[in-house]
Write a structure and sequence with these properties.
The protein has 488 residues and is mainly α. Helices cover 60% and strands 8% of the residues. The chain contains 20 helices and nine strands. It has a three-stranded antiparallel β-sheet, with no helix packed on it. Strands 5-4-6 form a three-stranded antiparallel β-sheet. Helix 9 crosses helix 10 and helix 10 packs across helix 17. The longest helix is centred in the N-terminal third of the chain and has 37 residues. The protein is globular, with a radius of gyration of 26 Å.
């Protein structure tokens, strides 16, 4: 590849970079000047926008993975020589956990503190302030968790008959781990702004992704014949593909309910089958964890309190609990009538959601329970990385990234119209834009729709081609002022 070396080339003056030509061209078509070998910077900038973003994201993820192999200062070599210890004692040992925890805590508090609720419902400015509060909370949590991690590390060293840590390790490790958390957050934000998006979600899921590769390595080390290895590998791939297809089908399943806006405009209100995402499973885990904690102080160390003592009745009881949590949480996260009232709209069939809500709860609960309990027990041990609902989260992130890549590849440069807090709000705005003929997609829609209350760290914003930005903002501002989200 060659580029124009003339500093006064009209192309360079207008765009700030030299025009790049393929091999075989001898002169610049803009100014007629001589050509020289193109620099790496210009070669990168000449790539299509979505290709640059993919390379940029891959580069940042690679940097993050390399930094994850940097040990904490002063870790004894005898400890690092043991298998798996570098994964525990590196600068990213805390990862994004303090920030994700802080974001969830602040989100929960918005339901209890009116001031925070007003910020949540106050549009992008309010949510920007909530993010600042989350960052300060994350800083405090990172210090606390970093000190706790250092204390546990000292005990682990003692268990390996290693000399106890000097006192200077406590502040140094705490500060290093805190800095590692915010460095991870900076990389995630860079991926979100200049890469394929979904930076926090990608790095948050990275331990699960690396678990798949480690599982593949362990599979290859098994004392199996080539025939058995190929068969089991194909079975693994086939099982993953079937599960992925099931997840995509369920997560995209929705019913479009006809509705009207205040100006009489017809719009389809999207009602997802999994209206509460994986939140019922997360709440069930919290509930069972609390039961085990109480049972720990009871006789027989929790066997009386733990559901494991129920034997064959364990799964039916867990499914019933999951069903109860779904009945409670679905109306909490999905109140379409309230959403439409906020914009002066209404549903054409007033009983539509009364019929849809009960009909969706049972199949959605069965779908979640399948991944929560039967699947890990029904498949062989070497399928263990399918355990729990994290595979659903992984598939949702993949769906979001694939949607954005396809959209960018088709339309080129994009622009963000507005960020949303409510999943139904984003779905309604997307439906309205598509009805008006404005191409759009919602970044982070599927992953945020899984986590709801537990996913405020997931950016969910409406994007359109740059050429449609003015029309999109006008349409959205007619529906709701800039200072207020379309739907809270």
């Amino acid at each position: 590849m060659k580029e124009c070396s003339n500093p006064e080339c009209p192309y360079r003056v207008s765009l700030g970079r030299a025009v790049v030509f393929s091999d075989g061209v001898d002169a610049c078509s803009e100014c007629g000047g001589p050509l020289s070998t193109a620099s790496a910077e210009n070669l990168f900038s000449s790539l299509p926008d979505f290709t640059r973003r993919i390379f940029y994201t891959a580069g940042l993820v690679l940097v993050w993975l390399l930094l994850a192999h940097v040990p904490l200062p002063g870790v004894p070599r005898v400890l690092l020589s043991k298998p798996g210890m570098l994964g525990r004692f590196n600068i990213f040992s805390l990862g994004l956990a303090p920030y994700v925890t802080a974001a969830v805590i602040v989100e929960i508090l918005t339901y209890a503190i009116p001031r925070l609720k007003s910020l949540r419902d106050g549009g992008e400015d309010g949510r920007r302030k909530l993010k600042v509060i989350s960052l300060w909370t994350a800083l405090a949590l990172a210090f606390i968790q970093g000190f706790g991690f250092t204390s546990l590390g000292a005990r682990l060293l003692e268990s390996y008959s290693v000399d106890s840590l000097p006192l200077w390790h406590f502040p140094v490790w705490t500060l290093t781990l805190t800095a590692g958390t915010f460095l991870s957050l900076w990389i995630a934000e860079a991926i979100s702004s200049s890469g394929t998006g979904h930076g926090v979600a990608l790095l948050w899921m990275m331990p699960n992704l690396t678990r798949i590769f480690k599982f593949g390595q362990a599979l290859c080390r098994q004392d199996w014949s080539t025939y058995d290895l190929v068969n089991r590998g194909l079975a693994l791939v086939a099982s993953g593909a079937v599960l992925a297809i099931l997840i995509v089908f369920i997560e995209k399943a929705r019913r479009d309910v006809p509705a009207r806006l205040r100006d009489g405009t017809g719009v389809s209100f999207p009602f997802k089958l999994t209206a509460a995402g994986i939140v019922p499973v997360l709440v069930l885990d919290l509930f069972l964890g609390a039961v085990r904690s109480v049972g720990f102080f009871a006789p027989h160390h929790g066997r009386v309190w733990g559901l494991e003592a129920l034997g064959l009745w364990q799964w039916p009881v867990e499914f019933c609990l999951l069903l109860v949590f779904s009945v409670v949480l679905v109306p909490m996260f999905h109140d379409p009538e309230h959403i439409l009232r906020e914009v002066g709209g209404s549903v054409k069939d007033e009983k539509a959601f009364d019929r849809l809500l009960p009909a969706a709860i049972l199949p959605a609960a069965a779908y979640l329970f399948f991944f929560y309990a039967p699947l890990p027990k029904a498949v062989p041990v070497w399928f263990g990385f399918f355990k729990d609902v994290w595979f659903i989260s992984l598939a949702a992130v993949a769906m979001d990234v694939a949607s954005e890549v396809r959209f960018r590849r088709r339309y080129g440069a994009l622009a963000s119209v507005r960020e949303f807090h409510s999943v139904p709000s984003a779905g309604l705005a997307e439906s309205l834009f598509k009805d008006k003929g404005i191409p759009c997609f919602v970044r982070g829609y599927y992953y945020r729709a899984l986590r709801y209350l537990f996913g405020p760290f997931v950016e969910m914003s409406l994007w359109v081609p740059e050429a449609s930005l003015a029309e999109a903002r006008t349409l959205l501002n007619e529906l709701a002022p800039e200072k207020r989200e379309v739907l809270p």
